[in-house]
Amino acid sequence: MKLSKREDYTFYLATELARSYGVKRLSLTEIADSSGISLFFLKQLIRPLVKHKLVESKEGMNGGYILAKKPENITMYQIFSAINALPLLTSCCEGKISCERKKSCTPGIVFRDLNELFIEKLKNTKLSDLI
User: Fold this and answer.
1) Residue 120 near residue 112 (C-beta atoms within 8 A)
2) Which domains does the chain carry?
């Protein structure tokens, strides 16, 4: 499994917002200039975070973006859920599919366990842990 640029850059964006939490709002232009990520791409990345109420936006003078909650109250799982369906190592990790080999499929058992560990790690890692 490999994170896409979209996912990777969204976590970078959220981390930058966490660093500035309680200090100032950040404009996407500032983030684009300091990171080298295109402004156009950042505009796409911020939308689902605002939609899921993880980030607040303000237009005009002193405008920009700020986390809607303290960094210690936002998990990587919440960010991942806002931008994407959670990654799965195999389709059997969903638990929704019916497979006659499911009970005896030892690779599937390992992949399901790894997936559960991955999701648990996302749920237990807060933005504040990343700054």
Assistant:
1) no
2) 5-130 (1.10.10.10)
